[in-house]
Amino acid sequence: MSTEVGTVTEGMPKGASEPLRLLALDADDLQIMSAALQDAIVHPADIIWDQRARTLTIELSRFCWECGGTRVRAAMQFGDVQRVQSRRLPRGEGVPLELLAMDFMPGAAPGGEVVLMFAAGGDLRVEVECLDAVVSDLSARWPARAAPVHPLDDASGQDEGA
Fold this sequence. Notes:
The structure is a single chain. By secondary structure, the chain is mainly β. Helices cover 7% and strands 44% of the residues. The chain contains 1 helix and 10 strands. It has one helix at residues 27-37, and strands spanning 21-24, 40-50, 55-64, 70-78, 81-87, 97-106, 112-118, 123-128, 133-137, 142-143. Strands 1, 2, 3, 4, 5, 6, 7, 8, 9 and 10 form a 10-stranded antiparallel β-sheet that branches. A hairpin with a 5-residue loop joins strand 6 and strand 7 (112-118).
């Protein structure tokens, strides 16, 4: 799991911006949602699958890349959920998960599988009858203690193409 390292710059925008609200109905929409949620912190206890309602709801602390280094409480919900599976995700109360990305793997149209990939290699697979996901900010923003850092894959610290 990558940790938040580095400092947030003083250049944070002043004044309130509109809360984020996104709807994903296809793979392209999900990629936009994935970018907005990169580096969100999720606690396993905040992942709730309601089988009867066929929903998966996840509360998270979203890093606001668009606001210059703040965080906000947000919720993401998937509808038409048929199955949820986790792989290599810790289940402890005090163990935060860092969301890296989400992807959609089509199945029998219009359904498929949404894969939420977390730092340290774990993932959550959400089988959906059709892609129906929403994200909404829930709280006021607060200054982040640090900005997430993503080290380069190359051990020398240089891009291979550089």
